[in-house]
Model the fold of this input.
Amino acid sequence: SAVISQKPSRDICQRGTSLTIQCQVDSQVTMMFWYRQQPGQSLTLIATANQGSEATYESGFVIDKFPISRPNLTFSTLTVSNMSPEDSSIYLCSVDGSGVDTQYFGPGTRLTVL
Amino acid sequence: ELKVEQNPLFLSMQEGKNYTIYCNYSTTSDRLYWYRQDPGKSLESLFVLLSNGAVKQEGRLMASLDTKARLSTLHITAAVHDLSATYFCAVAYNNNDMRFGAGTRLTVKP
Done:
């Protein structure tokens, strides 16, 4: 299975600022995904990040608010821009398991916006 | 639009009892996943179900898939406290995207 790390693990931010979350995986993967999990809720897919192309965003999520980078096959970043308290959530990255039909999830970044 | 519905959302069980969690989805899919999430932790993959009639078992958990009924079940046998967690089903669409159910928060009491 893939080993995924995320930085930071948690942060408390002020309204109007931006935070960039990093996701690092220990092997090369084709697809990386970013999810949001609001307190006590399920997971919602924000976008899919493929190396060498623009991220594909789900309905309700836009690039200006959640810009994503995917510079290589082991790394991706998600930026939460111009934050408001409604952005307080856990943000998780996941990757496709190579040759295995599942997704592996990182430990998550717990974001609180004041 | 693909919708995934889980029930129950909350489940309190006595140790030693059996119960089933249900996952219904609204459009055709060829893959269904079950994940476990402990409080404050990330998601752990439990099962991947790839075909109609698929059944997988791991310890006290057994998952099945009926693609014709668009229904998956997660059956818990003789529950123990260590199974207390939130269980999510997720359905694949658009090749690799997943849509998650709301989750079932399971509490197993002594």
